[in-house]
Amino acid sequence: MTEMVYGTVPVRTGEPVLPKWWRTLDKWTLTCILALFGIGLLLGLAASPPLAARNGFGAFHYVQRQGLFGALAIMAMMITSMMPPTLVRRLAVIGFLAAFVALCGLPFFGTDHGKGAMRWYSLGFASVQPSEFLKPGFVVVSAWLMAASFQIGGPPGKLLSLAMTVVIVLILAMQPDFGQAALILFAWGVMYFVAGASMTVLVALAGIVVAGGSFAYTASEHFARRIDGFLNPEIDPRTQLGYATNAIREGGFFGVGVGEGEVKWSLPDAHTDFIIAVAAEEYGLVLVLIIIALYACIVFRSTIRLMSERDMFVRLAGTGLAAMFGVQAMINLGVAVKLLPAKGMTLPFVSYGGSSLIAGGIAVGMLLAFTRTRPQGEIDDLFRGQKR
What we know:
The protein has helices spanning 2-6, 17-24, 27-54, 61-81, 85-104, 106-109, 130-148, 157-173, 178-194, 199-219, 221-231, 240-251, 275-307, 312-336, 354-370, 379-387; strands spanning 121-122, 127-128. The chain is mostly helical. Residues 1-9 and 377-388 have low confidence and may be disordered.
Protein backbone atom coordinates (compact mmCIF):
# COMPACT_ATOMS: atom_id res chain seq x y z
CA MET A 1 0.00 0.00 0.00
CA THR A 2 2.85 2.37 0.84
CA GLU A 3 4.47 1.67 -2.52
CA MET A 4 1.20 2.45 -4.32
CA VAL A 5 0.95 5.84 -2.62
CA TYR A 6 4.53 7.04 -2.40
CA GLY A 7 6.34 5.15 -5.12
CA THR A 8 9.44 3.06 -4.58
CA VAL A 9 13.16 3.63 -4.28
CA PRO A 10 15.48 0.77 -5.28
CA VAL A 11 16.85 -1.13 -2.30
CA ARG A 12 19.97 -3.27 -2.46
CA THR A 13 19.15 -6.27 -0.35
CA GLY A 14 21.93 -7.94 1.61
CA GLU A 15 24.35 -5.06 1.10
CA PRO A 16 27.14 -4.93 3.73
CA VAL A 17 27.04 -2.08 6.27
CA LEU A 18 30.17 -0.20 5.18
CA PRO A 19 29.45 -0.14 1.41
CA LYS A 20 25.87 0.90 2.13
CA TRP A 21 27.08 3.63 4.51
CA TRP A 22 29.55 4.95 1.95
CA ARG A 23 26.99 4.87 -0.88
CA THR A 24 24.35 6.82 1.06
CA LEU A 25 26.68 9.27 2.84
CA ASP A 26 27.11 12.92 1.90
CA LYS A 27 30.80 12.69 0.98
CA TRP A 28 31.20 16.45 0.49
CA THR A 29 30.18 17.11 4.08
CA LEU A 30 32.47 14.38 5.39
CA THR A 31 35.40 15.75 3.37
CA CYS A 32 34.83 19.28 4.70
CA ILE A 33 34.72 18.04 8.29
CA LEU A 34 37.98 16.12 7.90
CA ALA A 35 39.56 19.15 6.25
CA LEU A 36 38.58 21.36 9.18
CA PHE A 37 40.12 18.89 11.61
CA GLY A 38 43.33 18.83 9.55
CA ILE A 39 43.45 22.63 9.58
CA GLY A 40 42.90 22.56 13.34
CA LEU A 41 45.95 20.33 13.80
CA LEU A 42 47.99 22.60 11.52
CA LEU A 43 47.02 25.69 13.50
CA GLY A 44 47.57 23.82 16.76
CA LEU A 45 51.19 23.28 15.75
CA ALA A 46 51.53 27.06 15.47
CA ALA A 47 49.38 28.22 18.40
CA SER A 48 49.97 25.76 21.25
CA PRO A 49 53.80 25.60 21.78
CA PRO A 50 53.92 28.96 23.66
CA LEU A 51 51.17 27.77 26.03
CA ALA A 52 52.93 24.43 26.50
CA ALA A 53 56.17 26.25 27.36
CA ARG A 54 54.40 28.45 29.92
CA ASN A 55 52.87 25.38 31.57
CA GLY A 56 56.09 23.38 31.55
CA PHE A 57 55.05 20.80 28.92
CA GLY A 58 56.72 19.63 25.75
CA ALA A 59 56.29 21.84 22.68
CA PHE A 60 53.69 19.57 21.07
CA HIS A 61 51.85 18.52 24.25
CA TYR A 62 48.55 20.17 23.27
CA VAL A 63 48.82 19.11 19.63
CA GLN A 64 49.19 15.48 20.70
CA ARG A 65 46.17 15.81 22.98
CA GLN A 66 44.19 17.42 20.17
CA GLY A 67 45.14 14.55 17.90
CA LEU A 68 43.94 12.06 20.51
CA PHE A 69 40.67 13.90 21.13
CA GLY A 70 40.23 14.32 17.37
CA ALA A 71 40.69 10.60 16.78
CA LEU A 72 37.99 9.89 19.37
CA ALA A 73 35.76 12.53 17.77
CA ILE A 74 36.16 11.06 14.27
CA MET A 75 35.50 7.58 15.62
CA ALA A 76 32.33 8.82 17.35
CA MET A 77 31.30 10.62 14.15
CA MET A 78 31.77 7.54 11.96
CA ILE A 79 29.90 5.22 14.33
CA THR A 80 27.03 7.65 14.81
CA SER A 81 26.71 8.34 11.08
CA MET A 82 26.14 4.62 10.43
CA MET A 83 23.10 4.49 12.72
CA PRO A 84 19.50 4.69 11.51
CA PRO A 85 17.55 7.76 12.72
CA THR A 86 15.57 5.75 15.29
CA LEU A 87 18.74 4.53 16.99
CA VAL A 88 20.25 8.04 16.88
CA ARG A 89 17.12 9.34 18.59
CA ARG A 90 17.23 6.73 21.36
CA LEU A 91 20.89 7.31 22.13
CA ALA A 92 20.39 11.08 21.96
CA VAL A 93 17.66 10.89 24.60
CA ILE A 94 19.97 8.95 26.93
CA GLY A 95 22.88 11.30 26.26
CA PHE A 96 20.70 14.36 26.76
CA LEU A 97 19.43 13.15 30.14
CA ALA A 98 22.97 12.34 31.32
CA ALA A 99 24.31 15.72 30.16
CA PHE A 100 21.38 17.55 31.76
CA VAL A 101 22.02 15.88 35.12
CA ALA A 102 25.71 16.77 34.81
CA LEU A 103 24.78 20.36 33.96
CA CYS A 104 22.61 20.63 37.07
CA GLY A 105 25.48 19.33 39.22
CA LEU A 106 27.98 21.99 38.11
CA PRO A 107 27.20 24.47 40.93
CA PHE A 108 28.11 21.78 43.47
CA PHE A 109 30.93 19.83 41.84
CA GLY A 110 32.14 21.99 38.95
CA THR A 111 35.08 24.33 38.50
CA ASP A 112 35.58 27.60 36.66
CA HIS A 113 39.32 27.22 35.87
CA GLY A 114 39.74 30.83 36.95
CA LYS A 115 37.51 32.17 34.15
CA GLY A 116 34.59 33.25 36.32
CA ALA A 117 32.08 30.78 34.88
CA MET A 118 31.25 27.38 36.41
CA ARG A 119 31.22 25.27 33.23
CA TRP A 120 33.57 22.32 33.72
CA TYR A 121 34.16 19.16 35.69
CA SER A 122 37.85 18.65 36.42
CA LEU A 123 38.95 15.02 36.07
CA GLY A 124 42.60 15.72 36.79
CA PHE A 125 43.92 14.58 33.41
CA ALA A 126 41.22 16.49 31.51
CA SER A 127 38.11 18.65 31.90
CA VAL A 128 34.59 17.95 30.70
CA GLN A 129 32.09 20.65 29.72
CA PRO A 130 28.56 19.16 29.95
CA SER A 131 26.94 21.88 27.83
CA GLU A 132 28.92 20.72 24.78
CA PHE A 133 27.40 17.23 25.04
CA LEU A 134 23.98 18.62 25.90
CA LYS A 135 23.59 20.50 22.61
CA PRO A 136 23.26 17.63 20.09
CA GLY A 137 21.00 15.68 22.44
CA PHE A 138 18.85 18.75 23.02
CA VAL A 139 18.36 19.31 19.28
CA VAL A 140 17.31 15.70 18.66
CA VAL A 141 14.95 15.55 21.67
CA SER A 142 13.34 18.88 20.72
CA ALA A 143 12.88 17.69 17.14
CA TRP A 144 11.29 14.47 18.40
CA LEU A 145 8.82 16.40 20.57
CA MET A 146 7.93 18.82 17.77
CA ALA A 147 7.46 16.00 15.26
CA ALA A 148 5.27 14.11 17.73
CA SER A 149 2.94 17.11 17.99
CA PHE A 150 1.93 16.59 14.33
CA GLN A 151 0.60 13.11 15.02
CA ILE A 152 -3.12 12.61 15.63
CA GLY A 153 -3.60 12.60 19.38
CA GLY A 154 0.08 13.42 19.86
CA PRO A 155 1.50 15.37 22.82
CA PRO A 156 1.86 19.18 22.87
CA GLY A 157 5.42 18.73 21.67
CA LYS A 158 6.14 22.33 20.74
CA LEU A 159 5.07 23.56 24.17
CA LEU A 160 7.05 20.83 25.93
CA SER A 161 10.16 21.61 23.89
CA LEU A 162 9.78 25.32 24.69
CA ALA A 163 9.54 24.58 28.42
CA MET A 164 12.64 22.38 28.18
CA THR A 165 14.49 25.12 26.30
CA VAL A 166 13.63 27.77 28.88
CA VAL A 167 14.87 25.58 31.74
CA ILE A 168 18.18 24.85 29.99
CA VAL A 169 18.73 28.48 29.00
CA LEU A 170 18.15 29.62 32.59
CA ILE A 171 20.62 27.03 33.94
CA LEU A 172 23.26 28.08 31.40
CA ALA A 173 22.69 31.77 32.14
CA MET A 174 23.31 31.16 35.84
CA GLN A 175 26.78 29.66 35.20
CA PRO A 176 27.04 32.20 33.44
CA ASP A 177 27.34 30.89 29.87
CA PHE A 178 25.30 33.24 27.73
CA GLY A 179 26.96 32.06 24.51
CA GLN A 180 25.78 28.46 24.85
CA ALA A 181 22.38 29.69 26.08
CA ALA A 182 22.00 31.82 22.94
CA LEU A 183 23.07 28.88 20.77
CA ILE A 184 20.47 26.58 22.36
CA LEU A 185 17.77 29.21 21.94
CA PHE A 186 18.71 29.85 18.32
CA ALA A 187 18.67 26.14 17.40
CA TRP A 188 15.24 25.72 18.98
CA GLY A 189 13.96 28.83 17.16
CA VAL A 190 15.14 27.48 13.79
CA MET A 191 13.44 24.12 14.37
CA TYR A 192 10.29 25.83 15.60
CA PHE A 193 10.24 27.99 12.47
CA VAL A 194 10.71 24.96 10.19
CA ALA A 195 7.93 23.18 12.08
CA GLY A 196 5.53 25.95 11.08
CA ALA A 197 5.64 28.55 13.85
CA SER A 198 3.43 31.60 13.55
CA MET A 199 5.08 35.01 13.23
CA THR A 200 3.18 36.19 16.31
CA VAL A 201 4.86 33.56 18.46
CA LEU A 202 8.29 34.30 16.99
CA VAL A 203 7.92 38.04 17.57
CA ALA A 204 6.78 37.40 21.14
CA LEU A 205 9.78 35.15 21.75
CA ALA A 206 12.11 37.79 20.30
CA GLY A 207 10.64 40.32 22.72
CA ILE A 208 11.23 37.95 25.63
CA VAL A 209 14.85 37.47 24.54
CA VAL A 210 15.41 41.24 24.40
CA ALA A 211 13.84 41.65 27.83
CA GLY A 212 15.97 38.81 29.19
CA GLY A 213 19.11 40.38 27.73
CA SER A 214 18.27 43.71 29.36
CA PHE A 215 17.76 42.02 32.70
CA ALA A 216 21.03 40.11 32.36
CA TYR A 217 22.86 43.36 31.59
CA THR A 218 21.67 44.91 34.84
CA ALA A 219 21.97 41.77 36.99
CA SER A 220 25.22 40.20 35.74
CA GLU A 221 28.53 42.06 35.94
CA HIS A 222 30.08 39.38 33.69
CA PHE A 223 27.49 39.99 30.97
CA ALA A 224 27.57 43.78 31.31
CA ARG A 225 31.36 43.89 31.07
CA ARG A 226 31.33 41.99 27.78
CA ILE A 227 28.55 44.11 26.29
CA ASP A 228 30.29 47.35 27.34
CA GLY A 229 33.53 46.12 25.80
CA PHE A 230 31.71 45.31 22.57
CA LEU A 231 29.97 48.72 22.40
CA ASN A 232 33.14 50.64 23.19
CA PRO A 233 34.49 51.94 19.84
CA GLU A 234 38.03 51.86 21.21
CA ILE A 235 39.81 48.50 21.42
CA ASP A 236 42.30 48.13 24.25
CA PRO A 237 45.42 46.71 22.53
CA ARG A 238 46.31 44.83 25.75
CA THR A 239 43.15 42.72 25.72
CA GLN A 240 42.63 39.42 23.89
CA LEU A 241 40.41 41.18 21.36
CA GLY A 242 43.07 43.84 20.82
CA TYR A 243 45.77 41.25 20.18
CA ALA A 244 43.46 39.30 17.85
CA THR A 245 42.36 42.25 15.72
CA ASN A 246 45.96 43.43 15.38
CA ALA A 247 47.05 39.94 14.28
CA ILE A 248 44.30 39.77 11.67
CA ARG A 249 45.33 43.20 10.38
CA GLU A 250 49.01 42.23 10.23
CA GLY A 251 48.31 38.99 8.38
CA GLY A 252 47.00 40.69 5.27
CA PHE A 253 46.11 38.53 2.28
CA PHE A 254 48.86 35.88 2.41
CA GLY A 255 50.02 36.10 6.06
CA VAL A 256 53.41 36.78 7.61
CA GLY A 257 54.61 33.20 7.14
CA VAL A 258 54.42 29.85 8.88
CA GLY A 259 55.74 30.12 12.43
CA GLU A 260 56.38 33.86 12.11
CA GLY A 261 53.25 35.03 13.94
CA GLU A 262 53.49 36.89 17.26
CA VAL A 263 49.92 36.77 18.55
CA LYS A 264 50.29 33.23 19.92
CA TRP A 265 52.81 34.55 22.47
CA SER A 266 50.35 37.13 23.79
CA LEU A 267 46.95 35.45 23.61
CA PRO A 268 46.23 32.96 26.41
CA ASP A 269 43.35 31.51 24.34
CA ALA A 270 45.18 31.52 21.00
CA HIS A 271 44.65 27.77 20.63
CA THR A 272 40.93 27.84 21.51
CA ASP A 273 38.62 30.85 21.25
CA PHE A 274 40.95 32.99 19.07
CA ILE A 275 42.50 30.32 16.85
CA ILE A 276 41.30 32.21 13.78
CA ALA A 277 43.64 35.10 14.73
CA VAL A 278 46.61 32.71 14.44
CA ALA A 279 45.30 31.50 11.08
CA ALA A 280 44.86 35.06 9.79
CA GLU A 281 48.27 36.26 10.97
CA GLU A 282 50.40 33.36 9.71
CA TYR A 283 48.42 32.22 6.66
CA GLY A 284 46.43 35.35 5.82
CA LEU A 285 42.98 35.94 4.47
CA VAL A 286 43.34 33.01 2.06
CA LEU A 287 43.14 30.38 4.82
CA VAL A 288 40.38 32.27 6.64
CA LEU A 289 38.25 32.24 3.48
CA ILE A 290 38.93 28.52 3.02
CA ILE A 291 37.76 27.85 6.59
CA ILE A 292 34.61 29.91 6.06
CA ALA A 293 33.93 28.10 2.77
CA LEU A 294 34.24 24.70 4.49
CA TYR A 295 31.67 25.65 7.15
CA ALA A 296 29.35 27.12 4.51
CA CYS A 297 29.62 23.95 2.41
CA ILE A 298 28.67 21.73 5.37
CA VAL A 299 25.61 23.82 6.23
CA PHE A 300 24.55 24.31 2.60
CA ARG A 301 24.94 20.65 1.60
CA SER A 302 23.11 19.42 4.70
CA THR A 303 20.26 21.88 4.25
CA ILE A 304 19.79 20.97 0.59
CA ARG A 305 19.61 17.26 1.38
CA LEU A 306 17.20 17.86 4.27
CA MET A 307 14.85 19.88 2.08
CA SER A 308 13.93 16.69 0.21
CA GLU A 309 13.45 14.65 3.42
CA ARG A 310 9.90 13.45 4.08
CA ASP A 311 10.30 12.40 7.73
CA MET A 312 9.41 15.39 9.93
CA PHE A 313 11.65 14.31 12.79
CA VAL A 314 14.69 13.82 10.56
CA ARG A 315 14.10 17.15 8.81
CA LEU A 316 13.79 19.09 12.07
CA ALA A 317 16.69 17.40 13.84
CA GLY A 318 19.03 17.74 10.86
CA THR A 319 18.13 21.39 10.36
CA GLY A 320 18.70 22.16 14.04
CA LEU A 321 22.11 20.45 14.04
CA ALA A 322 23.22 22.19 10.83
CA ALA A 323 22.05 25.58 12.11
CA MET A 324 23.78 25.13 15.47
CA PHE A 325 27.03 24.02 13.79
CA GLY A 326 27.08 26.97 11.40
CA VAL A 327 26.07 29.61 13.92
CA GLN A 328 28.69 28.47 16.44
CA ALA A 329 31.34 29.00 13.76
CA MET A 330 29.86 32.41 12.91
CA ILE A 331 29.90 33.47 16.56
CA ASN A 332 33.54 32.48 17.03
CA LEU A 333 34.60 34.28 13.84
CA GLY A 334 32.43 37.30 14.63
CA VAL A 335 33.93 37.71 18.10
CA ALA A 336 37.49 37.69 16.70
CA VAL A 337 36.74 40.73 14.50
CA LYS A 338 34.44 42.43 17.05
CA LEU A 339 31.24 41.92 15.12
CA LEU A 340 29.81 40.18 18.19
CA PRO A 341 30.40 40.42 21.96
CA ALA A 342 32.92 38.01 23.46
CA LYS A 343 31.30 34.59 24.04
CA GLY A 344 34.07 32.16 24.95
CA MET A 345 32.99 29.75 22.20
CA THR A 346 35.25 27.41 20.25
CA LEU A 347 35.54 27.10 16.48
CA PRO A 348 34.14 23.63 15.69
CA PHE A 349 36.82 21.04 14.78
CA VAL A 350 39.51 23.74 14.60
CA SER A 351 39.90 24.97 18.18
CA TYR A 352 41.62 22.88 20.83
CA GLY A 353 39.32 21.22 23.39
CA GLY A 354 38.40 17.65 24.23
CA SER A 355 34.73 18.29 25.05
CA SER A 356 34.25 20.49 22.00
CA LEU A 357 35.89 18.02 19.61
CA ILE A 358 34.20 14.85 20.86
CA ALA A 359 30.77 16.47 21.24
CA GLY A 360 31.22 18.03 17.81
CA GLY A 361 32.03 14.61 16.39
CA ILE A 362 28.82 13.21 17.84
CA ALA A 363 26.81 16.17 16.51
CA VAL A 364 28.11 15.97 12.93
CA GLY A 365 27.79 12.18 13.08
CA MET A 366 24.09 12.68 13.81
CA LEU A 367 23.90 15.20 10.97
CA LEU A 368 25.53 12.75 8.55
CA ALA A 369 23.11 10.03 9.71
CA PHE A 370 20.10 12.27 9.08
CA THR A 371 21.31 13.41 5.65
CA ARG A 372 22.05 9.92 4.30
CA THR A 373 19.86 8.86 1.39
CA ARG A 374 17.35 6.22 2.46
CA PRO A 375 14.59 4.25 0.72
CA GLN A 376 11.19 5.95 0.95
CA GLY A 377 12.89 8.95 2.54
CA GLU A 378 12.29 11.81 0.13
CA ILE A 379 9.41 14.15 -0.54
CA ASP A 380 9.85 13.61 -4.29
CA ASP A 381 8.43 10.10 -3.86
CA LEU A 382 5.17 11.57 -2.62
CA PHE A 383 4.70 13.70 -5.72
CA ARG A 384 5.66 10.84 -8.04
CA GLY A 385 3.10 8.68 -6.31
CA GLN A 386 0.41 11.34 -6.73
CA LYS A 387 1.12 11.64 -10.44
CA ARG A 388 0.51 7.95 -10.84
